[in-house]
Amino acid sequence: MLRTLLRPGIAGAVALALGAGFLAAPATAAGGAPKPDAPKKVISAYFTNWSVYGRGYFVKDIPADKLNVIQYAFGVPTFNQATGAVGCDVLDPWADYQQVYWGPENTVDGVADTYPGQNVYGNFNQLRKLKAANPHLRIEISLGGWTKSTWFSSVAKTAERRQAFVSACIDTFIKGNLPTGGWPEDAGGIGVAKGIFDGIDLDWEYPTAKADSNVDYGPEDRHNATLLAQEFRRQLDVQGRADGKHYLLTAALPAAKSSTKYYELREFTKSMDWVNIMTYDYNVSGGSVAGPSTLFTRDPRDPEADDWTWNTVGTVGYYLAQGVPASKIVVGVPFYGVQYIRNADGLYKAFDNTGMNPDSLVWDSKPQPSYHDLVDVSGVLTPAGATTGGWTRKWNVFAGEPYLWNPAAEHVLTTGTVTAPTTIVYTDPKSLAERTALIKLLGLRGAMAWELSQDSDDNALINALNPVLR
User: Fold this and answer.
1) Where is the signal peptide (predicted)?
2) What are phi and psi of 428, to 5 degrees?
């Protein structure tokens, strides 16, 4: 069975990683049975509010027929150190609910906004339209993320703060009470966004660690995260009873066995409908060698190869071993690659990304080009997977991932234009087919993608995940 579903050679790796009783955790363990009105299988993808600025990717561009959950990024935990007040706010009021669509070209239904008189404009209004046209669709607000988890430790510190924070999040995003006082003058108000969001996704990166910018973090975060999840579940259930529906609660969790230093996995997951495991960023542009961002199976050449969980299959096995039910596991995939320049010896060799700019919109200037960049912008990859412009596509048989090699790629850097040997690791439909097979084989809940605007114009990556729903 394994050999018919997965590429040759993976069967042994899956058996090793998921052996030794790791499949003993049944789908119904730890409250694992899906709620009747929650999606039984999940293809979830992030939509970022800044997509409308960068790529010019709008809600209308979301392939709603190919997925069933959208995670809107991001909402922001807030905390006032002087007063102790907690809050839960929108990240970008303009993109979220103030931007008026004066014409029909960027709207879901081809109808321009009516100004004044709507109270909700921008992405929120378009998401409402998208849901109306696709009744199967669920939308969650994702809270935090790498740069906006600043105050999670603070708002989770005490029972009083947890209760107030959860109440504030439900008030803003579930009850739909949006701030007023901006422009348009009628934007926002009490209950104006109710019904847009079907749940809350927690993206605390990471409890017990500073990560990008956490304040007042400490070892107590690990248990406080569990208590915060329980408080969210309690209050969402109360609100759900009032509204006659089940509100989703999910979370983005880190990969590999190191995840347990951040979370009490089994206890935390009990409160969740499912958890999205971020099985990517195993190797990053700030690392020491040019390695794949996401490994499907173990690569003995990887600097972390001694850790058998340092790959997608191993991470899934570890979560199962920790008592997380298969029915609550959603496998994360990146729609972006990692670019390593001045990399003369190729994969797992040294590189020097000096001069790369993560904020650049130019594909060859940034360390993380998207699949859209590779296919639709640069054309170094054709939709059929062929290469152009001196690039060669290779396959990492150990990790189960593709990569590109060019001995003389040109890059426009902050330090000037250089020509250098370059490796780009990335995700493609073939590598995603392996995830799809794994999900089906083990009865996992589904797949999650970061993020929609990074897919190709023909939605090749989200299409490759779609069999999860069938």
Assistant:
1) 1-29
2) -135, 175
Query: Rounded to the nearest 5°, which phi and psi values hold at 2?
Result: -60, -45
Q: How many CA atoms lie within 13 A of 421 on its CB side?
A: 11
pLDDT at 268 over 90: yes
**Is 367 part of any domain?**
no
Which value, to the nearest 10 degrees, does the dihedral of the CA atoms of residues 379, 381, 385, 389 take? 100
Separation of CA 444 from chain center? 17
> DSSP of 71-87, one letter per residue?
EEEEEEEEE-TTT--EE
Instruction: For 60, list phi and psi in degrees, rounded to 5.
Output: -60, -20
The domain tally of the chain equals: 1
Q: pLDDT-derived band of residue 15, with 50, 70 and 90 as boundaries?
A: low
Confidence of residue 251 (pLDDT cuts 50, 70, 90): very high
In-domain check, residue 413: no
**Residue 31, pLDDT above cutoff 80:** no
Q: Any idea what DSSP says for residue 437?
A: H
DSSP string, 11-31: HHHHHHHT-TTGGGS-TTTTT
Domain range for 103: 2-335+428-469
Alpha-carbon torsion angle 283, 284, 285, 286, nearest 10: -100
**What confidence tens digit (pLDDT) does each residue in 163-195 have?**
999 999 999 999 999 999 999 999 999 999 999
Task: Report yes or no on 344 lying in a domain.
Answer: no
Per the CB < 8 A criterion, the answer to whether 135 and 157 are in contact is no
Whole-angstrom Cα distance, residue 210 to residue 20? Answer: 35
Three-state SS for 316?
Answer: helix
What is each CA distance from 66 to 417, 450, 465, 466, in whole angstroms?
A: 40, 15, 8, 6
Q: Could you give the C-alpha distances from 173 to 223, 333, 463, in angstroms and in order?
A: 25, 26, 30
The reply to whether 264 falls in a domain is: yes
CA distances from 447 to 43, 296, 312, 318, 435 (A): 5, 13, 12, 17, 8
3-state SS, residue 394: strand
Order across the sheet with 401-413: list the strands. 338-341, 416-425, 401-413, 392-396
